[in-house]
Amino acid sequence: MSQDKKSLLVIEDDPGLQRQLRWSFDAYEVLVASDRESALALVRRHEPAVVTMDLGLPPDPDGASEGLATLEQILELVPDTKVIVLTGNQDHGNALKAIAAGAYDFHQKPFDPNILSLVIERAYYLYALQQENRNLLQAQMNSPISGLITRDPVLSKVCRNVEKVAPSDATVILLGESGTGKEILARALHQLSARREKRFMAINCAAIPESLLESELFGYEKGAYTGAVKQTPGKIELAHEGTFFLDEVGDLPMPLQAKLLRFLQERVIERIGGRKEIPVDVRVVCATHQNLKKLIEDGRFREDLYYRLSEILITIPPLRQRVGDAALLAHHFKNKFCMQEKRSSLNFSQEALAAIESHSWPGNVREMENCIKRAVIMAEGSVIGADDLGLYSTSAAEPINLRQIRDRAECNALMKALARVDGNVVKAAELLGVSRPTIYDLMNRHGLK
């Protein structure tokens, strides 16, 4: 097959139309199939970006059942492929069924080669954009902060701080709500450090009973207690020369806080039941969603341990405070789960996007991921609505039109200036850095007396 031509699959059982389509689209490498079996074989082999197909295929040339079944299987194999359905004048209902099943577009027979050519070119362009977007997302996944997607300036600054801190051995506390990505950043600190070839050991203080937590952290000697049938190193010891991640450190019991403090000061541990001090070279990273200073005030967290742990303190903003990230992540998860669930490309309705942007996301990115996965599975047709998400916008959507945003900001600034100078137009003009006639024009435009 020619390497410089795009492949176009034509599914058509009429030999005359096959020849006409070949001749009309000689700029493409045209592949022809006359039934479902041969079409699926070509799809598996070539994965064409664009397909044109007649719904009336044998053994049901006068109906649409075979064509719709073929469409469904093509999109299961290659969800991003753009399928353009060619229909007769009487097949409008079947064309709508095909669109609902995931077809990109439909075109009536007898087809106009020029118009159909434009539709095909647009389909190739959209396919190329989607592939470019996927490549960009993949590049992001391979970036130093792997697994973290953002355009928010505050979180971007957090990422830069992680990159600065990573090469050092400073102890770091990551503060943020549940689901904001604390473990992702902890792993980034490890991967960007000189310890990347060694172990990254993680332990969640809230997930392990207090009676077992000490042995998990520090290990135990054989015979230290009933059931201790062999010498077992703890997680801190296993992380030697690597990184030890202590998640939910705010739930660490007070007796263990004292033992952890001694380790941080001396860099040696003692297994339970042991008398030997074992030196451990490890980088410690902690995380919590709790307010440690409030815990210190309540007597539930040692102040000296807090200052030992917080050599570097990094605060991760919640999703609701990250500008533009809610919609960005929604599109990312939608594309991810469409591929995972073998669904054709879905789009969000404007109501769904408004609901996503106005929702407070108390569970942050973890809640977002589960919400979008459920919507991809439950959505009927090619559009995800607010009902599929289970979210409803309770406030008016923020304007996205630049003129509206500018007018609102202008009006707010004018009202604040006039209020500050008690309505004195001359002083308001000086405060805003404009002329007095401009103030009068702005007052008239915004209806201010």
From TrEMBL:
<dbReference type="InterPro" id="IPR025662">
    <property type="entry name" value="Sigma_54_int_dom_ATP-bd_1"/>
</dbReference>
<protein>
    <submittedName>
        <fullName>Two component Fis family sigma54 specific transcriptional regulator</fullName>
    </submittedName>
</protein>
<dbReference type="GO" id="GO:0043565">
    <property type="term" value="F:sequence-specific DNA binding"/>
</dbReference>
<dbReference type="Pfam" id="PF02954">
    <property type="entry name" value="HTH_8"/>
</dbReference>
<dbReference type="Pfam" id="PF00072">
    <property type="entry name" value="Response_reg"/>
</dbReference>
<dbReference type="InterPro" id="IPR014264">
    <property type="entry name" value="PEP-CTERM_resp_reg"/>
</dbReference>
<dbReference type="InterPro" id="IPR002197">
    <property type="entry name" value="HTH_Fis"/>
</dbReference>
<dbReference type="GO" id="GO:0005524">
    <property type="term" value="F:ATP binding"/>
</dbReference>
<dbReference type="InterPro" id="IPR025943">
    <property type="entry name" value="Sigma_54_int_dom_ATP-bd_2"/>
</dbReference>
<dbReference type="GO" id="GO:0000160">
    <property type="term" value="P:phosphorelay signal transduction system"/>
</dbReference>
<dbReference type="InterPro" id="IPR003593">
    <property type="entry name" value="AAA+_ATPase"/>
</dbReference>
<dbReference type="Pfam" id="PF25601">
    <property type="entry name" value="AAA_lid_14"/>
</dbReference>
<dbReference type="InterPro" id="IPR001789">
    <property type="entry name" value="Sig_transdc_resp-reg_receiver"/>
</dbReference>
<dbReference type="InterPro" id="IPR027417">
    <property type="entry name" value="P-loop_NTPase"/>
</dbReference>
<dbReference type="GO" id="GO:0006355">
    <property type="term" value="P:regulation of DNA-templated transcription"/>
</dbReference>
<dbReference type="InterPro" id="IPR009057">
    <property type="entry name" value="Homeodomain-like_sf"/>
</dbReference>
<dbReference type="Pfam" id="PF00158">
    <property type="entry name" value="Sigma54_activat"/>
</dbReference>
<dbReference type="InterPro" id="IPR002078">
    <property type="entry name" value="Sigma_54_int"/>
</dbReference>
<dbReference type="InterPro" id="IPR011006">
    <property type="entry name" value="CheY-like_superfamily"/>
</dbReference>
<dbReference type="InterPro" id="IPR058031">
    <property type="entry name" value="AAA_lid_NorR"/>
</dbReference>
